[in-house]
Amino acid sequence: MAGNSAILSVQRGVVDVLGGTDLPKLESISLRLRKMVLVGQRVSDKELKKVCSVAERNKQCLKSIPISTCTIPGMVTFMLQLGGRMMVDQAGGVLENANLCLHRNLGFPMIPGSALKGIARHAAWCQWVERLEAGKTAEAKHIAGLLAATFGYPTGDSLPANDAIRTREPGRYLDAYLAREFPDDYGKDGRKTTWAGAVSFLPATPADGKWKLVVDVLNFHQNSDCRNPVPVFFPAVERGTKFRFVVAPIAGRCTPEILNFAVEMLKMGLSTGGVGAKTAAGYGWFDPASEEKVVDHSTCSREELEAISQQEVNQLSFMGLEDTVDSLASRDELFQRLYLIRLTKEKAKVMRRWEKKGDSRLQQVLEIAGKLNMELTYK
Questions:
Q1: Residue 170: cis peptide before it, omega within 30 degrees of 0
Q2: Cβ atoms within 10 A of the Cβ of 336, count?
Q3: Domain check: are 317 and 222 in the same one?
């Protein structure tokens, strides 16, 4: 932040409580970005770098917090990697919205489920338009029906009542198209005057602890060539960050076809349209080649689960294998057991060093082994 002379009087007391203008006692990243920015002034790169440093510090603390997971029957989970940096919630000039969407308490970046629904719905709408323009009427009708069933009706693409403001033919507005092609469902006297969607899009969160916040810059050029560009700094999620996406069916409303349609449209929207602001400049797109499917463990047999866990344990790098201990408490018992077997076999020397130095990681390992009734041999 600048100096006390530039701080509003109502903020001075808060700044003093937080340890001064550098806010050393403020550990909440979202609070820093939402509230502790000087009104009427541009955010400096130095101030945002402090925010990013707090994010790195908090990320280390998150290792000791179990990963929050939920299991919904039939849900589809997959992971994609950012192909470019990502900005979200950038609303030009509106201070309270000019920040990344960060978890309110834990501070990691996340993509709201409502945003993902909009991305998937727009991708589906584009597919419908493409089929219409290509003259593929049967495919266009099928996609339109799926779109309404998946995302709800009205679809948000209604026919304007005023002819003067229409930019397309009536049949190119989705709601009017549905009323014409599906009169029994969406017509004037149809059964579905309003219809909720059949799937839920859960917020997307980082798939691992390798995410990173960085300071990016936009050079805004004045109309006159004689003026210097004015740099605008903003936080962004670094490219390469892997996010976990979940699409869940709503019981009694969703069919396998609808669920698969929602998943495919989301993947298409993430890779072609992207997420957040400045997607036309290469921000916010996800690499489709990086897709990793996440197995629904609730439908696997014991043998299948063991094979999956064994493969995951085997894929852990030998260099740094011991670092997995920090997040071991959040994993299931099958993974813990297989991991401890490999750890004691390949890292016995490291464990003896832990014992000699009183390293807390050995205590964590022993506590988990005790819960699993395992006898560890590393001496």
A1: no
A2: 21
A3: no
CA distances from 154 to 192, 193, 254, 262 (A): 9, 8, 18, 17
3-state secondary structure of 254: coil
Residue 42: its pLDDT value, please?
58
Within its chain, how far is the Cα of 264 from the centroid?
17
For residues 113 and 169, what is the distance between their CA atoms, to the nearest angstrom?
32
How many domains in the chain?
2
- Among 265, 294, 323, the domain-final residue is 294
What is 77-126 written as a DSSP string?
EEEEEESS-B--S--TT-GGG-S--B-TTT--B-B-HHHHHHHHHHHHHH
Residues 18 and 103 in one domain: yes
Per-residue pLDDT of 105-137, as tens digits, reads 777 888 989 999 999 999 999 999 999 999 999
Predicted model pTM = 0.70
Query: Tens of pLDDT along 61-107?
Result: 666 555 555 667 778 889 999 999 888 655 544 444 445 677 777 77
